[in-house]
Design a protein that fits this description.
This protein has about 200 residues and is of the alpha/beta class. The protein has a single domain (about 1-204), classed as Vaccinia Virus protein VP39 (Rossmann fold). Helices cover about 30% and strands about 25% of the residues. The protein has 6 helices and 7 strands; from the N terminus they run ααβαβαββαβαββ. The chain has helices at about 15-25, 30-40, 60-65, 80-90, 130-140, 165-180, and strands spanning about 50-55, 70-75, 95-100, 115-120, 140-150, 185-190, 195-204. It has a 7-stranded mixed beta sheet, with helices on both faces. Strand 6 and strand 7 (about 195-204) form a beta hairpin. Bound molecules: S-adenosylmethionine.
């Protein structure tokens, strides 16, 4: 049963304080392919409002901004938002990105105001999945898209190797999306070089 819970690292505490900066630094490199994958699925353009939930240092948010979307990056950990702001200042210029300190379970955004939400390597950390998915559904417009991306992990993995989803956990998240009023939910596996990831895409 534990294998089916998609937020098996809820309440993981190491994104705050000094360790949070170290954790954030490890996320600066190697996330570009994940970002390009979800941007391709979302097919963003300048009419979109994209919200990156659990944005970390902001790689995927910056890519979305370069594609012309209006972008909001949300993360509950202050070190992540500081790194995101800093990197955005010093990397290739992008449009304005709004950074908000919040968790998925309380998105401080109006109803029906967002066309695409994505969450990369973060849903497995959300402390309250039902609350988070209700919030995502609330802020998405009709015809909106939610994409969750996680590293694929084998059942029974431990330690850092367990920070992702087994096939059962991905399917469980897809089932939850349907329970939360999404019209469809699709699980897809992807090979990004040697990195193997799974996406769950829900459409309202
Ligand atoms: C492994 S990092 C991934 C960061 C970024 N998305 C990436 O792929 O580089 C997980 C992120 O989830 C964030 N997070 C933790 N609890 C969260 C919550 N309740 N809601 C949203 N994000 C959360 C962490 O602060 C952290 O930035």
């Amino acid at each position: 049963m534990t294998d089916l819970v998609p937020n098996h690292h809820a309440h993981y505490r190491q994104f705050s304080g000094a360790f949070g900066y170290l954790a954030g630094l490890t996320m600066i490199l190697g996330r570009g392919r994940d970002a390009r994958l979800v941007a391709g699925i979302a097919d963003l353009d300048e009419t979109d409002h994209l919200v990156d939930i659990g944005c970390g240092p902001g790689t995927a948010a910056r890519l979305a901004a370069r594609q012309g979307a209006r972008v909001t990056g949300i993360d509950p950990a202050e070190p992540m938002l500081r790194l995101a702001r800093l990197l955005t200042r010093f990397r290739r210029p992008v449009g304005e990105i709004e950074w908000i300190r919040a968790g998925a379970e309380r998105l401080t955004l109006p109803d029906d105001s967002v066309t695409v939400c994505w969450s990369l390597a973060a849903v497995h950390h959300w402390p309250d999945l039902d609350a988070g998915l209700s919030e995502v559904r609330r802020v998405l417009t009709s015809g909106g898209t939610f994409i969750a991306l996680e590293k694929r992990t084998p059942p029974g993995a431990t330690g850092i190797a367990s920070h992702g989803w087994t096939p059962g956990q991905a399917e469980a998240l897809a089932a939850m999306l349907l329970e939360h009023g999404f019209g469809s939910a699709e699980v897809s596996n992807h090979e990004l070089g040697r990195r193997r990831v799974v996406t769950v895409t829900g459409r309202t």
